């Protein structure tokens, strides 16, 4: 286990170093048991890094260790970045959240909603109202993911070539047009369903800004925040820093070991035709920490402001109708968060009640995770940010996030007034 020099003595920001060490020991056991390849962790409070650690291998077969500059596929942790990009344009008056998506992406006109039938012979009815931009940002548009394997629409997506990726040769614009040509799972705004909606937001950013998504990210977000290692592809000169991607050999939570997923893992080494705003980025721990700190700073970091204070507050409030949680409004399927006691904002989950969620945390905490078991969250009440990176696909293999929560919050030892 290695640790870099931190910015502050943990005790100065109300964190017990002995209890922080429990986090390292706990997740080291996952690696020692062959259940994780390696991991990287950063805990910051009041804008100051209080704890960092790395353990295990970025490449198990080569014996290469995880280092502070290891590159990780962050998959769906791309979604908050894409959502910030859209909200930056919203602040410029480029669109309203209530605008129909078809105003900018014409393929979304005249949507139909699945009401029965089979994947081969779906029964549909016209959508009562159009898909709107806020539907996309809140995953209430009626889109889905092919990898869910729970409803007929998921099967329709898979038949169209969308499961863990997209059909060969399609760029983002073509993917969006293809999704728009498929039925919706429900009437827009009626339910919450984790989906390709943020990829559609990425295309919206392209159309409204006149830039490709990678160019917008580089110019408007990564450059200003100093996120020098975050991109849609890993250059050959940086390939030795890239962590390999792994999967469990079984779904057992007690005896699984890992196997390398070379096919999916090597995709990030090629220039992508499809720029996925929902899951396409690679980043370092340092870079994503910069992004999280910007959100903790209500849109500002080190004198650089990406969003206004009120916009970040709006983004990280619960937007589910009636203020309910995902358990009440979401379909019972996989997402990168728990449903009980958790709502959803514009691109991030929002903790409503940690008691209901049965894990330590704070009301108002927000964040998201990625398919390879990565996670981040921001807790404004505690002035806390946490970034955890590893490369085990899928993220449902182990309860890493809930365990990380209980270990981090039990290390907070300052008095609550």
UniProtKB/TrEMBL annotation:
Transmembrane segments: none annotated. The lineage of its organism: Bacteria, Bacillati, Actinomycetota, Actinomycetes, Cryptosporangiales. GO terms for molecular function: hydrolase activity. Residues 23-396 form the Beta-lactamase-related domain. It holds the Pfam family Beta-lactamase. This is Serine hydrolase domain-containing protein. The keyword Hydrolase applies. Keywords: Hydrolase.
């Amino acid at each position: 286990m290695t640790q870099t020099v931190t910015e502050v003595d943990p005790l100065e920001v109300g964190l017990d170093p002995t209890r922080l060490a429990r986090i390292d020991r706990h997740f080291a056991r996952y690696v020692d048991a062959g259940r994780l390849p390696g991991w990287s962790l950063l805990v910051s409070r009041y804008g100051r890094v209080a704890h960092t650690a790395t353990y295990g291998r970025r490449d198990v077969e080569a014996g290469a260790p995880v280092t502070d500059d290891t590159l990780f596929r962050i998959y769906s942790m791309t979604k908050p970045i894409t959502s910030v990009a859209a909200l930056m344009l919203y602040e410029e008056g480029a669109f309203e959240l209530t605008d129909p998506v078809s105003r900018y992406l014409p393929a979304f006109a005249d949507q139909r909603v699945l009401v029965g039938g089979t994947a081969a012979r779906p029964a549909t009815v016209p959508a009562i109202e159009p898909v709107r931009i806020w539907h996309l940002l809140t995953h209430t548009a009626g889109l889905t993911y092919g990898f869910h394997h729970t409803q007929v629409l998921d099967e329709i997506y898979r038949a169209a070539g969308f499961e863990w990726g997209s059909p060969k040769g399609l760029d983002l614009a073509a993917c969006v047009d293809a999704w728009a040509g498929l039925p919706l799972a429900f009437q827009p705004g009626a339910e919450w369903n984790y989906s390709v909606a943020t990829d559609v937001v990425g295309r919206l950013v392209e159309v409204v800004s006149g830039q490709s998504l990678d160019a917008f990210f580089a110019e408007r977000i990564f450059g200003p925040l100093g996120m020098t290692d975050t991109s849609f592809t890993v250059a050959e000169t940086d390939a030795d820093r890239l962590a390999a991607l792994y999967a469990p050999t079984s779904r057992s939570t007690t005896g699984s070991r890992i196997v390398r997923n070379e096919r999916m893992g090597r995709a990030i080494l090629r220039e992508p035709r499809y720029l996925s705003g929902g899951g396409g980025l690679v980043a370092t721990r340092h870079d994503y920490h910069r992004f999280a700190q910007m959100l903790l700073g209500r849109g500002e970091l080190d004198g650089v402001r990406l969003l206004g204070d009120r916009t970040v507050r709006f983004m990280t409030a619960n937007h589910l109708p009636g203020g309910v949680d995902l358990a009440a409004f979401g379909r019972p399927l996989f997402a990168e968060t728990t449903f009980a006691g958790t709502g959803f904002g514009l691109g991030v989950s929002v903790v409503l009640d940690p008691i209901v969620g049965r894990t330590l945390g704070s009301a108002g905490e927000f964040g998201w995770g990625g398919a390879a078991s990565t996670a981040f969250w921001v807790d404004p009440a505690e002035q806390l940010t946490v970034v955890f990176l590893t490369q085990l696909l899928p993220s449902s293999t182990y309860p890493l996030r809930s365990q990380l929560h209980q270990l981090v919050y039990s290390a907070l030892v300052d008095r609550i007034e």
